[in-house]
Design goal:
Elements lengths: L1 E10 L2 E10 L7 E2 H21 L19 H21 L25 H26 L13 H15 L1 H17 L3
Antiparallel strand pairs: 1-2, 2-3
Helix pairs in contact: 1-2, 1-4, 1-5, 3-4, 3-5
């Protein structure tokens, strides 16, 4: 349920109004609506690249003009499948930045259930993950546009290249979005109201 908060301030005779939409997700403080929507969006941004990887496990190179890896089939399928599952799990884990289970350990977890999670136990890993993914964004930009001698894998057609750039481009948006969610979490948990 989204709510709107209006704050008015008076400065030398003029009144300014600031409106921010929040959503009550059961957290200690309301979550900004943009953060809730961003957390829901992250798994969808990663899904295209996860699906893109799967055929590579079966030696279909998705238009890349290169030889398949020489790994045994079972190892390649396991690697690609695990990488895709871990990517989506990480995206879903980012929901903890806008949910109560990112602030208090769920009661059903033995020994720890009901304990408050120290804010930096979530902030540090989320910030490090966001920074790593932002480095992937920088690498993607350098490779896509051939900056400073960086280059991308050659493709058999321009359409494969466009498709690859699109799915990988969506994926690398994760970094800045995770950093923004982490900052919103920090503001909500560590700053006084």
């Amino acid at each position: 349920m989204a709510t709107s908060t209006t704050t008015s301030t008076t400065t030398t005779g003029t009144t300014t109004s600031k409106t921010s939409a929040t959503v009550n997700t059961g957290t200690e403080r309301p979550v900004p609506l943009w953060a809730e929507r961003t957390a829901r969006l992250l798994p969808l941004l990663g899904l295209p690249v996860c699906l893109w990887r799967l055929p590579i496990g079966f030696d279909f190179m998705m238009g890349m003009d290169m030889e398949p890896e020489s790994w045994p089939r079972w190892a390649m399928v396991t690697y690609v499948g695990a990488l895709s599952l871990l990517s989506e799990a990480a995206a879903l884990l980012c929901r903890g930045l806008v949910r109560p289970w990112g602030e208090v350990v769920p009661r059903w977890i033995p020994l720890l259930g009901g304990r408050r999670i120290p804010p930096f136990a979530a902030i540090v890993p989320a910030a490090l993950g966001g920074l790593f993914l932002t480095l992937l964004l920088a690498d993607w930009v350098l490779c896509m546009f051939g900056v400073a001698g960086f280059s991308d894998v050659p493709y058999t057609s321009v359409w494969w290249r466009v498709l690859a750039a699109t799915v990988s481009g969506l994926f690398v948006l994760w970094g800045p979005l995770v950093l923004a969610l982490t900052y919103a979490y920090y503001r909500r948990r560590c700053r006084q109201a």
